[in-house]
Write a structure and sequence with these properties.
With about 250 residues, this protein is α/β, with parallel strands linked by helices. The chain is built from eleven helices and six strands. A six-stranded parallel β-sheet has the order 2-1-3-4-5-6, with helices on both faces. Helix 1 packs across helix 11. About 45% of the residues are buried.
Length: about 250
């Protein structure tokens, strides 16, 4: 996948939030360079692990909005869901577009695979401890992903269980909220990730009036983290040309 070098006057700021149990290190590694190549300035706020993790995400978005500059928001998994809902509740706000990767559920989490996985991991951490949970997860997870989870979870430390519990219970945007977002939306889904099922991203694409969906694979991401960012950059470029009146 190639993304052309595109110059954007004004260099819009893209505030991008990580998924549950992840962190800003992964966001920068996966997204920053490809988005910078199309003229965006990426800000990946630091995670504050624990029960207030989502509140920290929302504060970061509010602070960026208060700067009064061209603004895109988004993120990965939980970060994408928090950003989309935040933007939907501020229809007259400063957001010019959304950059969303790996949405995991719409509305209430219910039995969504990502919510179930987050709850199970939190329970394991509380029962067995962080080190044992990391070891068992690495044994059952592809090498690169196990390494990435171990790195990020170690950074969360004692706050990991609280972070995951909040993530598992945080609503995503409702169908009505998605349908009301009339700004361009670059959307990325994975074709081989059971935790973030592609049908969720496809549902968001149908509901969002002006979205473009680009898919890649977890396997490709394992070879090159920036695969995710290149897919997001391409989706964003396509979304800006999307006809809001065209059928989804």
């Amino acid at each position: 996948m190639r993304v052309s070098q595109v110059a954007h006057a004004g260099s819009p700021l893209a505030v991008l939030l990580p998924g549950s149990g992840s962190d800003e290190v992964f966001v920068r590694a996966a997204l920053e360079a490809p988005l910078r190549a199309i003229g965006l300035v990426v800000r990946a706020p630091s995670v504050r692990p624990g029960p207030g993790v989502v509140d920290g995400y929302l504060r970061a978005l509010d602070e960026a909005a208060a700067e009064g500059i061209p603004l895109l928001v988004g993120g990965v998994s939980l970060g994408a869901q928090v950003a989309a809902r935040w933007a939907a509740q501020r229809a007259d706000g400063p957001v010019r577009g959304l950059l969303l990767a790996l949405p995991a559920w719409t509305g209430q989490p219910d039995a969504a695979p990502a919510a179930v996985a987050a709850s199970a991991t939190a329970a394991a951490v509380r029962q067995d401890g962080l080190a044992a949970t990391i070891a068992s997860t690495r044994a059952d997870t592809p090498g690169w992903l196990g390494d990435e989870l171990a790195r990020a979870w170690s950074r969360h430390g004692g706050g990991l269980a609280g972070s995951l519990e909040v993530a598992a219970s945080t609503p995503g945007p409702s169908e009505a909220e998605l349908a009301g977002l009339r700004i361009p939306v670059g959307l990325v889904g994975l074709r081989d990730d059971p935790v973030h099922p592609l049908p969720v991203a496809q549902q968001w694409r149908r509901l969002l009036p002006r979205a473009a969906l680009v898919t890649t694979t977890l396997a490709a991401l394992g070879q090159d983290r920036a695969t995710l960012g290149r897919a997001m950059a391409l989706a964003w470029l396509r979304a800006q040309r999307a006809d809001p009146l065209a059928p989804g």
